[in-house]
Structures are given as structure tokens and as C-alpha cells.
Amino acid sequence: IEYIHEETNQHIFNVFNKYCPSNDGDPISFLADHILPLIYEKREIVNTLYTTQVDPCWKEFLRGTYSEWVLKNVNYQLKYNFNKEDIAYIITTMAISFIEVWIRKENPIPPKEFRETFIQLSKTSLCDYIVS
């Protein structure tokens, strides 16, 4: 399992670590432009990790790894009695969920096509998903 984590995430994490807000813009667009293509390249492995019990701790591994990155690289507002770790966890979990829904499909659309959807999902309030 550790090998699979390293194999699927090392290159992605290296790209994340090169992120510079002054050069790369906002973190959501950076993720859409630079990380989604890397995930797509490894889509078969990533899909397997999401859809099977090969690694039951896969999502927790992702949340732990990328929450740390969010804590260091993303500016956010502290609201609703959440601390910065809570907000980083929420941001990370939402991004992971959007990626999971995309990459779990039998034939996920290419990242260039998914880019705008990912950005819009990231900017949409949960209330906007609900029709009453």
C-alpha cells in the first residue's frame, strides 16, 4: 500500500510543492491546470483505489497529505468556530470529492474538459446544489 501511495502521489505532490501563488494564481486553478492532468494519467490506479477495498485508508491518506499542503499554501477565512485545520480539512475533502466523482467514471472526460466543471464546483455554495 505504501508503494501504491508513493507511486500515485509522489509526482503529484512534487508538483503541488512547486506552487507559488504569485506565479501560479489561485490554488483551485493551479489544481485544475496542473494536478488534474496528472491524476488523469494515473486514472486506472486512482479509480481502483477509490472503487475497491485495496486500500481502505486511501481517502484518509489523501486528506492527511493534502490538508497539510492547504494549511501551508491557501489563505482562508476562519468562520463558524472552525480553526485553520478544520477549514483545511473541509477544503481538501471537497476537492477530493469532486475529483473522485470525476475519476470513478468508466471513461472520465479529459482534464481539459473537466477543468471548468471542477472550478465551478469549487466556487458553488452547497445551497446552490439544492432545489426547493
Number of helices: 7
The averaged pLDDT comes out at: 86
Q: What name is given to the CATH topology?
A: Tetracycline Repressor, domain 2
Number of domains: 1
Distance between the termini: 44 Å
What does the largest sheet look like?
A: none
**SSE run:** HHHHHHH
Q: What is the level 1 CATH name?
A: Mainly Alpha
> Could you say which structural class the secondary elements and strand pairing correspond to?
mainly alpha
What would you say this structure looks like, in words?
By secondary structure, the chain is mostly helical. The protein has a single domain (2-123), classed as Tetracycline Repressor, domain 2. Helix content is 70%, strand content 0%. The protein contains seven helices and no strands. It has helices spanning 2-17, 21-24, 27-41, 43-51, 58-73, 84-103, 111-123. α1 (2-17) packs antiparallel against α3 (27-41). The termini are far apart.
